[in-house]
Amino acid sequence: MDTTILEKINSEIRVCRKCPLGDSCTNHVVGEGNSKADLLFVGEAPGKNEDLTGKPFCGKAGRVLDQLLKISGYKREDIYIANILKCRPPKNRNPKLEEIKLCTPYLVGQLEAIQPKIICCLGNFSVSFIMEKFGLSNKIQPIGKIHGKIFIPPKMRLLKIMPLYHPASVTYNPNMFSILKKDFQMLKNIPV
Ligand code: SF4
Predict the structure, then answer these.
(1) pLDDT tens-digit series, residues 174-186
(2) How many C-beta atoms lie closer than 10 Å to residue 63's C-beta?
(3) Does residue 55 carry a pLDDT above 90?
(4) CA triple 64-68-116, angle to 5 deg
(5) Which one of 102, 107, 110 would you pick to mutate in the ligand 1 pocket, going by the greatest count of ligand atoms within 8 A of its CB?
(6) How far away, in angstroms, is 72 Cα from ligand 1 center?
(7) CA of 176 to the centre of ligand 1 (A)
(8) What fold characterizes domain 3-186?
(9) pTM: predicted TM-score of the whole model, two decimal places
(10) Domain boundaries, the chain
C-alpha cells in the first residue's frame, strides 16, 4: 500500500479530460475508502447520484451495497470502492471500449497502490476487465455462471478475484438480493 502514489493518481483523475466524459460529468468519482483495504470492489461507472456527489455507490445501488456489506462482515471504512470509469456516461449508457481503454490505467494504478487481497468485480464490465488484466481471460463466462466463485490469477497466487452481480441489479429485480446475499456471505469465510 502506498498512500502517496494513491493520492497522486486520485489527484490526476480529478482533473482528467482524456475522454469527453470528463467534460460532460458534474464530478469525477475518484474512488473512496481505506487505502490499506484487503477487500476492494470495482464497479462499472458513476450513476446520477455519484456524479452529483463525487462519491461512489451513494444512490440506490449504494444502499444495497451497504446492506450486503453488513452481511459480509465488512464495513465501508474497511474497504475501497473504485470504478472502471471515473466519470458518468450520459444517461448511464454502457462504457465504450475507447473510454475503458483511456480510463483503466487509473484503476490499475489504484490497485497497484492499494494491493488488495480480494478484488470483487461488480457486473460484467468489471469482471471482463479485471479477469483479463490478471490473466484469467480463459475463465470469463457470463456473470450468471461465475458469480460468487473465486479465481486465483496464475501469476499472483495470493490474490483472489470474485465476480459478483452488480448491486444495481436488485433495484430492477428484488429477487437478485438473495443471490447477492449468498455470495456476500462467502466473503466472511475468505481469509485475508
Ligand atoms: S472517464 Fe476516465 S478517462 Fe474519461 S475523463 Fe473521466 S477520468 Fe478521464
Answers:
(1) 999 999 999 999 9
(2) 14
(3) yes
(4) 115
(5) 102
(6) 31
(7) 30
(8) Uracil-DNA Glycosylase, subunit E (3.40.470)
(9) 0.96
(10) 3-186
